[in-house]
Amino acid sequence: MTDLPPDLPRLRTLRTFLAVLLVEIDEAIARGEQREREEQRATRDRPKPPAWLLELGLNRNSPPVQVHQGDCWNSGKRTRGISLDEARRAITEGVKPCNVCRPDSALGFLDS
Known about the structure:
Strand content: 5-15%
Number of domains: 2
Number of strands: 4
Oligomer: single chain
Radius of gyration: 30 Å
Largest sheet: 4 strands, mixed
Strand order of the largest sheet: 3-1-2-4
Shape: rod-shaped
Helix content: 40-55%
Structural class: alpha+beta
Order of helices and strands: HEEEHEH
């Protein structure tokens, strides 16, 4: 055990200091636990990414550029999520399928 001061006033001061410190530690633990709960809730409640992406042209009048699977690393920044039917329709209407993720194969089109 550590050496404690022998006199009562210093022992009381030390006890008061440690009690205050313990309250601060408990508050820090509570904040940390709250942060963990919020992170878990954010991860759990995160919306699922779309299964299919349509990469749009440079401006709003440009035609779509490519169709991608939702997890494709090659999709550009100008994408929006689309449904399965929209992905099929886009490919049949001539929008180029991505040559990395091959949505045409995943959608059941013959490989070209």
